[in-house]
Amino acid sequence: MPCFCNLGQAIDIADLLAEHPAVQACPSLQHARACPGLAAASEAVLAVGGGSSMFTAAEAFRSVEVLRTAATKWQYGPTLQRPRCAAGVCVSSAGHVYAISGYAGNDCYEESVEWADASSEGLLRGWFAGPALSQARAGCAACFGPDGRVWVLGGGCDESASLDTVECLDPREGRWCQAPCMPGRRRCFAASFGIDRKLYIYGGWNRERWHEDSAARLDLRSLRWETLPSPVSEAPVQANSVIPYHFVSGCTAL
Fold it and tell me: Residues 157-214: pLDDT tens digits?
């Protein structure tokens, strides 16, 4: 039986770029949580939702924990409107945290979206309902783009079938629209925008391929996907020659 813990770790990006990474322990969460969403806002880091395990029999959580800047202890934040395990979570340029889709327990996959102001005063107002997705996508990846839109990719609406579809939300318009599909279905993968303003995706799994090692990027100008060398390819690749200052992790920093 897997053991899901409440421990956290951090790494200095400057050290990583200098090829001298030093992983440091962070304060432990108040509650162990599998597959939570992680959002790094200007005033705090938020651990959003999660569950008692990564399996469909798990209990999904509504609780949120907040680690404020320079704090040494996680505190409970405003509770989500819906339980969300493996939700897509990201922060907009306005400091709004989006919790997108996720597994709600009891074979329920959420199409709903909610958001909160991540500032100290904003969190006191709690979570607000946002525009719903066209379909549920637990295990999706979410990120905020240089085009001012929230992007959500992949995931799945049941325990086996993964999606290749992509949806975008312009917070000013308040509605989701379809974007070009990814090259391949995947869930539980890493995605983020690079300093070149392109959207990168890595890894994940789907029903046909449990350990996906492929990578691709989307050019926002042409709206075309380009296949990239695998991050775990045996062929030697010069550091930063393909993807500058871009890292595969649960919380990406650029």
Answer: 988 789 999 999 999 999 999 999 999 999 999 999 999 999 999 999 887 777 788 9
Q: For residue 140, which of 120, 170, 110, 116 has the smallest C-alpha distance?
A: 110
Contact 101, 88 (CB under 8 A): yes
d(CA 144, CA 168): 9
Q: For 55-87, how does the pLDDT look when each residue is reduced to its tens digit (9 = 90+)? A: 888 899 999 999 998 889 999 999 999 999 999
Task: Please indicate, yes or no, if residue 251 is contained in any of the structural domains.
Answer: no
DSSP string covering 40-106: E-SSEEEEE--BSSSSTTSPBP--EEEEETT-SS-EE-PPPSS--BS-EEEE-TTSEEEEE--EEET
On whether residue 130 sits in a domain, the answer given is yes
Q: Identify the sign of the CA torsion 138, 6, 92, 195.
A: negative
Q: Is residue 242 part of a domain?
A: no
Q: Yes or no: say if 212 and 205 are a contact pair by the CB < 8 Å rule.
A: yes
Q: Which among 162, 156, 111 has a CA at the least distance from the CA of 134?
A: 111
Question: What's the whole-model pTM score?
Answer: 0.85
Q: Which of 193, 131, 132, 189 shows the shortest CA–CA distance to 164? A: 189
Amino acid identity for residue 2 in this structure: P
In whole angstroms, give the CA distance from residue 157 to residue 136.
5
What is the count of structural domains for the chain?
A: 1
Check which CATH number belongs to the domain holding 127 and give it. 2.120.10.80
179 occurs within a structural domain? yes
Task: Note whether 92 and 144 are within 8 A (CB).
Answer: yes
